[in-house]
Write a structure and sequence with these properties.
The complex is a heterodimer of chains A (about 325) and B (about 270). Chain A contains 11 helices and 18 strands. In chain A, helix 1 links the parallel strand 1 and strand 2. Chain B folds into 2 domains: about 200 residues, Nucleoside phosphorylase domain (Rossmann fold, 3-Layer(aba) Sandwich); about 60 residues, no CATH class. Chain B is built from 8 helices and 10 strands. Chain B has a 5-stranded mixed β-barrel with strand order 5-9-8-6-10. The chains are: A alpha/beta (about 325), B alpha/beta (about 270).
Chain lengths: ~325, ~270
């Protein structure tokens, strides 16, 4: 039994129809069934949707964002010591299907929403820059923006935007191997390309639909070669069976294949998730062993026991130190 | 389990014949037919009758609600003569009275053409139609089927099919003709329904086997577990099964002394 292809159906808000980005996206999905909607929330936010089933044939929704163009960062993400830490949601949901992804517990639908009025997001950041500088902004927060670059070139646009804003620092976090889509853009110092990488066995088992570790490393090296600021993210570190040897071999591989002297910094954190989100995810993803660990609750966040968390993070950090990585280059998540 | 719904008996007849369904004579409020895991309910025409029928049959099947799909099929009208006798899978339903729209998930791959439908409270014809319809078809039940089913089911568990029987002329459609139209398309509808059911069951495999559930129920009774302890036991049992796919819950539980403290700690460390 087969399912429809990804984006076989594109739902478009009536208000979004005449935006140039709508036209651009539709030109890439000429065979898609187009369905007009009044408001993206009438399809995206309805209760009782089957996330796992929808992920088998993800649909695309094109919408006009009305409010919420910039959000203050949360404690679950790293702020890299920037006081003015913000994120935005240019796209809701992701093309990948990671077992541990909080988006499964955050959104009622697995379908992707692209907001076609991107200019308003940039206008909001410009306004905020008048009062809060330097401003640290994650633009690939509730999605993987680089993975979508072939569909909508938001990364390229925001890189060019950042080039003109000297007090803005942008992080584009990704698991994608799509560096080729931005390779012709001149690097700029205030944009950090942040790659999340995990051991191959974890990528294969728990990061479904993502590019392989090999492919991600190729993209990382291509970015470093072009002179981009690159951050490596070992996040989430998972307490899998034999995690010490799994992560030891992985870190040796990273040292062997990536010139760590060129990497700007490294962020790391063990698996953590809001209590309510985990509850919702477990209803949908009933067969993933990493969701059934003996977590402890800390301020509404489930995480490994303090002992386990410390043990795993210290293991990775001491390994990184042995590679000559300085403590100030490593950022740990503090909840 | 697949539950089919139609408004009219003449629409349902080909399905009854296909599955050799038998009538449930104990039900006086609706005509219900069934065989094994296939059910059919016939509601009568209109939104209220459709919503009542759907609510009634889904309430009865509450225990199976996560594992069933609901298929509505029947005739509809179209402004286009060219669409007469064609089968459509509905992707958007608009209730004309409330102007609310609903969207189905469209996950299963199929060659059936898709269409939007508008549901009216009264029969409509070209002469009394208050709006211009070019890409939609019309009927008198779909929005009610969708709204009442969505109280119980996810959007992935429902599909609506319509065969065009008339081009909105005021003429009454002959019953034998309706049966003929549905009969021509019933295999396609059944095939889609079975694929949708398979998708649902494959996507959400049962974590605990029937043997596991019997074992858990036995323990709950023997240890007189409270409601919260019961939930904890189910959660820990699921965790055990996910982490130890090849091991039996029964064999593990049979090794330990029967008291709730040892039970929870042994499950926790697995």
């Amino acid at each position: 039994m087969s399912t429809n292809k990804i984006f076989s159906h594109i739902y478009i808000e009536q208000e979004a129809i005449n935006y140039p980005d709508t036209e651009l996206i539709l030109s890439k999905f000429k065979n898609a069934q187009i369905i007009e909607i009044n408001n993206y929330k009438e399809i995206f936010n309805t209760p009782r949707q089957n996330w796992r089933i929808q992920k088998k044939s993800q649909k695309l929704i094109l919408a006009v964002k009305k409010a919420g163009f910039l959000y203050k960062g949360t404690s679950v993400a790293q702020n890299f010591k920037y006081e003015n830490f913000y994120y935005n949601s240019l796209i809701l949901n992701c093309l990948y299907d990671c077992d541990y992804c909080y988006l499964q517990g955050l959104y009622p639908s697995a379908n992707a929403v692209i907001f076609v009025n991107n200019q308003l997001f940039q206008d909001t950041v410009e306004e905020k820059l008048k009062t809060e500088i330097p401003l640290y902004l994650c633009i690939s927060y509730d999605t993987d923006l680089l993975a979508f670059e072939g569909t909508i070139p938001f990364c390229s646009r925001w890189i060019e935007f950042a080039r003109k804003q000297k007090d803005l620092i942008i992080e584009i976090r990704t698991k994608s191997a799509n560096f080729n889509t931005i390779q012709n853009i001149k690097p700029t110092d205030n944009v950090i390309l942040a790659w999340t990488i995990s051991p191959s066995s974890i990528t294969q088992e728990y990061e479904k639909l993502t590019p392989s570790l090999d492919a991600r490393i190729k993209s990382i090296n291509a970015a470093l070669k072009k002179g981009w600021k690159v951050r490596l993210c070992f996040d989430p570190i998972l307490s899998v069976k034999n995690w010490e040897s799994v992560y030891s071999e992985f870190l040796d591989r990273v040292k062997r294949d990536i010139n760590l002297n060129l990497v700007s910094d490294i962020s790391l954190g063990t698996f953590r998730i809001a209590k309510d989100q985990l509850k919702r995810i477990k209803k949908e993803r009933i067969d993933s062993s990493i969701l059934y660990d003996n977590f402890i609750e800390n301020n509404g966040i489930y995480q490994y026991t303090t002992e386990q968390k410390e043990k795993m993070e210290n293991f990775v950090i001491s390994k990184l130190h042995s590679f000559g990585i300085q403590a100030q280059q490593i950022e740990r998540v503090e909840i | 389990m697949i539950i089919f719904h139609t408004a009219l008996f003449v629409e349902a007849k080909p399905l009854i014949e296909h599955f050799k369904l038998t009538k449930d004579i104990t039900n006086s409020s609706h005509q219900i037919f069934s065989k094994d895991d296939i059910f059919l309910i016939i509601s009568g025409v209109g939104k209220v009758k459709a919503a009542t029928a759907i609510g009634s049959i889904l309430t009865k099947q509450k225990a199976n609600i996560e594992n069933l799909i609901l298929i509505n099929f029947g005739i509809a009208g179209s402004n286009s003569e060219n669409e007469i006798e064609k089968l459509f899978l509905i992707n958007k339903i608009t209730d004309f009275a409330s102007q609310k729209s609903f969207y189905s998930d469209q996950i299963v791959k199929s060659t059936i053409s898709e269409k939007e439908i508008i549901t009216f409270d009264k029969p409509v014809s070209k002469t009394n139609l208050q709006i211009s319809i070019d890409k939609q078809i019309v009927d008198m039940e779909s929005s009610a089927v969708w709204e009442s089913a969505r109280v119980f089911l996810s959007s992935s568990q429902i599909a609506i099919f319509k065969v065009i029987s008339d081009s909105l002329e005021s003429k009454k459609v002959n019953g034998d003709y309706v049966t003929k139209l549905i009969k021509k398309n019933i295999s396609t509808i059944i095939n889609y329904a079975k694929n949708l059911e398979k998708l649902l069951l494959d996507t959400y495999p049962k974590c605990l086997t029937n043997e596991d559930i019997i074992e858990i129920e036995k323990l709950i009774k023997e240890l007189k577990l409270s409601h919260s302890e019961k939930l904890k036991l189910i959660e820990l049992s699921k965790a055990f099964k996910v982490k130890n796919k090849d091991l039996s819950l029964k064999s593990l539980l049979n090794q330990i002394p029967i008291n709730s403290k040892s039970l929870f700690s042994i499950l926790q460390i697995q």
